[in-house]
Amino acid sequence: MKVVFLAPSYPPEMQQYTRGLAEVGAEVYGVGDTPAGSLPPTLKPYLADYLQVPRLLDDDDVVARVTAWMRGRQVDRVLANWEVMVLTAARLRERFGVHGMSVDTVDGFRDKQLMKERVAAAGIRVPRAERVRTVTEARVAAERIGYPLILKPIAGAGSADTYKVESSDELETVLGKMLHVGEASCEEFIDGEEFTFDTVCIDGKPAFMNVAQYLPKPLIARTNEWISPVIVTVRDLEHPKYAAGIALGRQVLDALNMGDGFTHMEWFRKSNGEVVFGEIGCRPGGAHLVDQMNYTCDIDLFREWARASCFSKFAAPTVRKHNAAIVFKRAKGHGRITRIEGLAEYLRRFGPHVVEQKLLPVGTPRRNWKHTLVSDGFLIVRHPDWDRACAMAMAAATDITMYAE
Ligand SMILES: Nc1ncnc2c1ncn2[C@@H]1O[C@H](COP(=O)(O)OP(=O)(O)OP(=O)(O)O)[C@@H](O)[C@H]1O
Ligand SMILES: [Mg+2]
């Protein structure tokens, strides 16, 4: 099993997927923009070979170079788990004629308008939305859709340039801030709780499934620096609250013709119980969601993803033991972390339930919270009881304070 794996070293969790591939017996041919000499030493044993490309995001160039590099060699899979690489992987699959999702299929997971059109065509509830390219188009679409509405980039990530707009006056202000965005989606604002639906699929059917709740909703968490965003995986997927969302998720996978690998979907649950599709990617969720899922079941999804992708098998138990909550912290002030208050007391109270403590140590420069959800670090706590898990997460949000100057 010879696998071309795009971006094996960055983002850092990609090293775990590389390990997973090697552990299930694949020969991994890594392609990235990191110089071979700068790859982490821990990664090298998992790579059969490595190609450094000058511009990883230059699709045409990467396709040409990888084609030349692998000429005369067997290729069985071309895989990518980083959103910006999934289309390149599909192009390479078509070039090599290997198993996996086509460019057209992957497009349905990448282009937010096409995605909604395909999902809606299968009879699934999506926010009413229009693709807009100019200020005039946005004004016309806004009149049709009505307020409140959401304006966001078609190819967005991390809630960047995403705005809730309450009125036509506010629309003008927001349009002024969005002039650099080439294509936007103008859509009906869905008022509800927000969840993920994550899977590892084999031929479009979930071999592993997960639901997690965002507390608060990502747009709120990512526009207010004082908030410590929390995401909690749901242990009890049988609870009636999630049934409609899980059913919706499965329908979406069918509608988009999912193949093998990770999916990460977001969905809304309105107060009347109605569920609405948000978005989906054919790759894992970021910001340590895969670690959270691993802590939920005590399994290794890095490896099981590899097994599913290469051999159409999933070999870990899917019994859910915990609700695993991640809490992201943002320091007060700018510059370097100077002190962390409340951590010792927190660990004294909840220590046995804390599975990771990765707050930036004193002396390290702050991260840009707008650029990375991980912000100034995180804790992961877990508990079999939902309310206890949430209460511990909220305690970490309110009782631990990081300072910087
Ligand atoms: N139609 C909508 N109704 C209500 N809220 C929305 C809508 N569209 C987007 N949002 C809010 O904005 C956030 C970001 O939007 P979306 O998930 O589409 O973009 P993204 O930038 O790709 O997100 P991510 O943070 O997952 O990378 C959503 O998680 C949600 O909180
Ligand atoms: Mg999103």
What does this structure look like?
The protein is an alpha+beta fold. It has 13 helices and 18 strands. The strands form 4 sheets. The chain has an 8-stranded antiparallel β-sheet with strand order 13-12-9-10-11-14-17-16, with helices on both faces. A 4-stranded parallel β-sheet has the order 3-2-1-4. A 4-stranded antiparallel β-sheet has the order 5-8-6-7, sandwiched between helices. The structure holds adenosine-5'-triphosphate and magnesium ion (MG).
Count all strands and give the number. Answer: 18
Name the shape in a single word.
globular
Q: Provide the residue-averaged pLDDT.
A: 97
Q: Major beta sheet, specifics?
A: 8 strands, antiparallel
Give the CA-CA distance, first to last residue. 51 Å
- What structural class is derived from the secondary structure elements? alpha+beta
Helix content: 25-40%
Widest sheet: strand ordering: 13-12-9-10-11-14-17-16
- Spatial extent as radius of gyration: 21 Å
Could you say which small molecules are bound to this protein?
A: adenosine-5'-triphosphate, magnesium ion
Number of helices: 13
Tell me the strand percentage band: 15-25%
Residue stretches low in confidence (pLDDT < 50, at least 5 long) are none
